[in-house]
Automatic annotation (TrEMBL):
<dbReference type="InterPro" id="IPR013022">
    <property type="entry name" value="Xyl_isomerase-like_TIM-brl"/>
</dbReference>
<dbReference type="InterPro" id="IPR050312">
    <property type="entry name" value="IolE/XylAMocC-like"/>
</dbReference>
<dbReference type="Pfam" id="PF01261">
    <property type="entry name" value="AP_endonuc_2"/>
</dbReference>
<protein>
    <recommendedName>
        <fullName>Xylose isomerase-like TIM barrel domain-containing protein</fullName>
    </recommendedName>
</protein>
<feature type="domain" description="Xylose isomerase-like TIM barrel">
    <location>
        <begin position="26"/>
        <end position="308"/>
    </location>
</feature>
<dbReference type="InterPro" id="IPR036237">
    <property type="entry name" value="Xyl_isomerase-like_sf"/>
</dbReference>
Length: 315
């Protein structure tokens, strides 16, 4: 009988740039009872650069890093559940750019095989990419996702497709759903990656308003979205489920490690203010209840992206 298993994102246990290595993060996750981990490409790239710099090519360095991470996970009895986030792809207009990103995806699939990861997570196109390079047309999006999905299917890998709250053209689960259905692949090839933060923030939140972080009509809007989810989304179409909350963001980004006043407000909130469920101000438990009401029984992963992650202290 399938059961819910709890994981955490590797980049939610300290930033690699602050000296937190992926091997140490695996150990910490295991010590605190997590059964699995999402592997962020930034953590894998950092391990590849710091430990395997002598190897001549990026694929060789990444492959060696992936093997090292897999070995440590095996020692700890940890499962590795996903490699993420693959982006800058879904709505690409230029055929040469599509081919280049598919070539990069093949490298990621190789890493998935080494890591024994079953989910390859892709996000919709995001700031700061040039919006003109990406089409909002569902037919274009679906055609690109079908090509990626067929490559994943040949490798026995599932795609988890996510709409971040600041997505350039796709920022809701319903828009992702339309693309997945149009791609016309089996339900176990291209699936949803659902996240309580992205759904609650986009539908109900006001990211820069500390006094009213949930819009006046936000809860009614969220309830309609979740009712639609309960009526139309089958649990077998969900790759995995991410849990996170958030506090309100500072519009002036004072003290934030990566200050960028041009970025969308939801991105500012996501980068700097995401906390564990119940530690923030968003209606994330309502989203979680809706997903579990579907009968979902798969991996649930915690995602925390906060200024604390930049602190160098090992604890």
């Amino acid at each position: 009988m399938p059961r819910i298993q709890i994981a955490i994102a590797s980049n939610s246990l300290g930033k690699s740039a602050a000296g937190h290595t992926i091997l140490r993060k695996l150990e910490a996750a295991s010590q605190h009872g997590f059964e699995g981990m999402e592997i962020s490409i930034e953590c894998l790239e950092a391990h590849a650069t710091s430990v395997f710099a002598a190897l001549p090519t990026r694929p060789a360095r990444l492959s060696a890093a992936a093997a090292d991470v897999r070995q440590r996970a095996d020692t700890l009895g940890m499962q590795l559940i996903a490699l993420n986030p693959f982006g800058a792809y879904d709505g690409l207009r230029d055929a040469a750019e599509v081919d280049a990103r598919l070539e990069e995806a093949e490298l990621w699939f190789d890493l998935c095989a080494i890591l024994r990861v079953g989910i390859f997570q892709i996000t919709s196109a995001l700031y700061p990419l040039d919006a003109a390079r990406f089409s909002p047309d569902v037919a274009t999006l679906a055609a690109n996702m079908r090509r990626l999905g067929l490559l994943a299917q040949a490798r026995g890998i599932r795609l988890g497709y996510e709409a971040p709250a600041w997505g350039m053209h796709l920022d809701t689960w319903q828009q992702i759903d339309a693309v997945i259905r149009r791609a016309d692949l089996p339900v176990d090839v291209v699936q949803h990656c659902l996240d309580t933060f992205h759904i609650a923030a986009r539908v109900a939140g006001s990211p820069l308003d500390a006094q009213q972080p949930v819009r006046a009509a936000g809860m009614a809007d969220l309830q309609r979205s979740l009712d639609e989810m309960r009526a139309s989304l089958a649990p077998e179409r969900i790759a995995y489920f991410q849990l996170s909350d958030a506090t309100a963001a500072d519009p002036d980004q004072r003290g934030y490690p990566r200050r960028d006043l041009a970025q969308p407000p939801y991105m500012t909130q996501s980068r700097n203010c995401r906390v564990f469920p119940g530690e923030g101000v968003l209606p994330v438990f309502e989203v979680a209840k809706a997903v579990f009401d579907l009968g979902f029984k798969g991996w649930v992963s915690m995602e925390v992206f906060h200024t604390d992650m930049w602190e160098e202290r090992p604890s």
